[in-house]
């Protein structure tokens, strides 16, 4: 039977929305009373119902009522009321008394009937932990009796000792099946077969997700303090998207969300059966190149050794991830760093070959957005190492071949090399007719400060660098708090000041506006995010994203 691909009924939509809002509101609650948050230390108990071939599973490991984060704005209360209004179910009376400390949502199979001729219908499973089994059974009976009164035809069956209830699909509702399994969980699915498979998975442990070596290893990586966790079987996720990846190094991924005094940390681990090598030696402290990045930077990327970045396992992960998420090899980074891409096109250079190949020491790349300009200024700082003089000379030669002149100027006695272009401007004069003036446009500059070669897009930016000794990004309290949440040693940082870069990002990645609407409470309070990779396991790539929030 070919059914709609939308999710099943009010209860599932409600669980997803509650999960999203709960995660987005963690930081509010943390500021009020973190001691009251109780998360499962053993991971998602509902994993026993999920096949080890499941593409994805997401779990909230605490009761959503503990996250009354947005109550002062009454967001959570309004959500609960609106979600259950059409069903005649009262959340506070019918669900709250029995709901436990876990909500798990899983895609159990890509096609329930495994018949490609009638379309692909994924199987969805929602597992709600219960602390009062009898009350949860009463809720399931109440739910389906109301659906029967609305015109649905109910079907009841006993399957391996479990009572399954389902109804036929109404025009305004998807098919819904439900059951209370044992004393611990209430299950809902979009087909009775999904529930039968879930029960089979419990009774045949080698079938469920907990028996998967990948999942076992991933759960060991999960932070014990994590309040939400997600697990992805990457090859099956790619198959779900209809993709055949040319490059597939990583097999699975686990994401764990935890609270931090300064915000929210999302830690992730990618697992592989192959041995991987980090792109560079780990760093025990922030790179010195950041001292030349002004505190006004909206985006700063720092690390060491760009020479092998393109073939590193980190780069392979990025190519696999973008192909899986976007359905193509689209490089989102090129959108975010569009000014550098524009330079590459304008000058006819290849960044990996003409620049990255000779950067073997520390580096920092930064963008400085301005409200008045659609294109931000850029900075590139490189530590001096073997081959850097030849690299700079090569860039000078490329500039000359593109018709630019190499000129020397001084700013506060600092010698600057500038790539300039002469242009003509026309002026109209009633008496004398047209007249012409010659203007010099700076297309880029570079200079040496200490043990670093610094490149910049314009004179204003290079002047800010020269005067930024006491106001660099490493002195920025927001930046210092953000990197403090990232473990050491690591591979460096990608730091994004959301308040400064929001407009730029929205122009370059239009879909971001939709994401902001869905997560409005979160994005309204997002101050910055910091990304890094770390860890020493040769068969996993570990990293984290730290979200710094205004109230933290």
What would you say about this model in short?
The chain has 552 residues and is of the alpha+beta class. It has 18 helices and 20 strands.
Q: Could you give the topology of this structure?
A:
Blueprint: H1 9-24, H2 26-32, E1 56-60, H3 75-85, H4 91-95, E2 99-109, E3 123-130, H5 133-149, E4 154-159, E5 162-167, E6 177-181, E7 185-189, H6 192-203, H7 213-221, E8 228-233, H8 234-240, E9 252-260, E10 263-271, E11 299-304, H9 313-326, H10 332-336, H11 338-347, H12 351-355, E12 362-368, E13 377-383, H13 388-401, E14 405-411, E15 414-429, E16 433-449, E17 452-456, H14 459-466, H15 477-484, E18 493-497, H16 498-508, H17 511-518, H18 520-523, E19 526-534, E20 540-549
Antiparallel strand pairs: 1-2, 1-8, 2-3, 3-7, 4-5, 5-6, 6-7, 8-9, 9-10, 10-20, 11-12, 11-18, 12-13, 13-17, 14-15, 15-16, 16-17, 18-19, 19-20
Offer a few descriptive terms.
29% strand, 31% helix, disordered N terminus, alpha+beta, elongated, 18 helices
Residue windows where pLDDT falls under 50 for at least 5 positions = 1-39, 69-73, 325-336, 514-518
- Number of E-type strands: 20
Distance between the termini: 51 Å
Given the helix and strand composition, which structural class is it? Answer: alpha+beta
In round numbers, the mean pLDDT is: 76
Portion in beta strands? 25-35%
Helix content, binned percent? 25-40%
Overall geometry: elongated
Largest sheet: 20 strands, antiparallel
Return Rg in Å. 28 Å
* Helix count from the secondary structure assignment: 18
């Amino acid at each position: 039977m070919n059914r709609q691909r939308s999710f099943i009924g009010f209860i599932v939509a409600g669980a997803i929305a509650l999960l999203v809002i709960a995660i987005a509101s963690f930081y509010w609650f943390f500021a009020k009373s973190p001691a009251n948050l109780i998360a499962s230390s053993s991971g998602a108990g509902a994993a026993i119902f999920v096949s080890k071939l499941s593409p994805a599973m997401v779990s909230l490991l605490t009761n959503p009522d503990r996250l009354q984060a947005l109550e002062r704005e009454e967001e959570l209360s309004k959500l609960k009321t609106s979600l259950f209004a059409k069903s005649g179910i009262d959340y506070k009376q019918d669900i709250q008394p029995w709901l436990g400390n876990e909500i798990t949502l899983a895609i159990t199979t890509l096609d329930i009937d495994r018949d490609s001729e009638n379309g692909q219908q994924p199987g969805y499973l929602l597992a709600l932990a219960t602390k009062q089994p009898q009350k949860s059974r009463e809720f399931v009976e109440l739910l389906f009796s109301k659906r029967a009164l609305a015109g649905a035809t109910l079907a009841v069956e006993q399957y391996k000792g479990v009572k399954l209830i389902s109804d036929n699909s109404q025009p305004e509702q998807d098919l819904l099946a439900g059951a209370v399994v044992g004393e611990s969980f209430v299950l809902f699915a979009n087909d009775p077969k999904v529930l039968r498979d879930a029960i089979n998975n419990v009774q045949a442990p080698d079938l469920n997700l907990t028996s998967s070596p990948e999942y076992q290893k991933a759960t060991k990586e999960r932070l014990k303090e994590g309040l939400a966790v997600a697990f992805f079987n990457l090859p099956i996720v790619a198959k779900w998207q209809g993709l055949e990846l040319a490059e597939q190094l990583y097999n699975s991924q686990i994401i764990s969300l935890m609270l931090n005094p300064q915000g929210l940390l999302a830690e992730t681990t990618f697992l592989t059966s192959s041995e991987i090598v980090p792109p560079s030696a780990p760093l025990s402290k922030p790179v010195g190149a950041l001292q030349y990045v002004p505190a006004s930077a909206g985006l700063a990327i720092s690390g060491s050794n760009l020479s092998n970045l393109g073939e590193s396992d980190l780069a392979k992960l990025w190519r696999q991830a973008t192909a899986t998420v976007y359905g193509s090899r689209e490089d989102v980074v090129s959108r975010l760093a569009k000014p550098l891409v524009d330079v590459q096109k304008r000058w006819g250079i290849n960044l990996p070959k003409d620049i990255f190949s000779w950067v073997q020491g520390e580096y920092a790349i930064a963008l400085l957005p301005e409200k008045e300009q659609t294109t931000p200024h850029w900075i590139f700082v490189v530590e001096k190492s073997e081959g850097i003089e030849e690299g700079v000379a090569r860039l000078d030669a490329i500039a000359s071949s593109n018709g630019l002149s190499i000129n020397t100027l001084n700013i506060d006695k600092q010698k600057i090399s500038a790539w300039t272009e002469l242009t003509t401007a026309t002026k109209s004069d009633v008496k004398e007719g047209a007249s012409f003036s010659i203007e010099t446009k700076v297309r880029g500059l570079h200079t040496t400060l200490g043990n670093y070669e610094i490149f910049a897009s314009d004179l204003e930016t290079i002047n800010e660098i020269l005067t930024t000794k006491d106001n660099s990004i490493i002195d920025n309290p927001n930046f210092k708090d953000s990197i403090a949440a990232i473990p050491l040693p690591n591979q460096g940082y990608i730091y994004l000041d959301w308040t400064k870069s929001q407009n730029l990002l929205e122009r370059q990645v239009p879909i971001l506006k939709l994401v902001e609407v869905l997560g409005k409470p979160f994005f309204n309070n997002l101050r910055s995010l910091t990304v890094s990779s770390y860890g020493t396991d040769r068969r996993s790539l570990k990293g984290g994203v730290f979200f710094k929030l205004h109230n933290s």
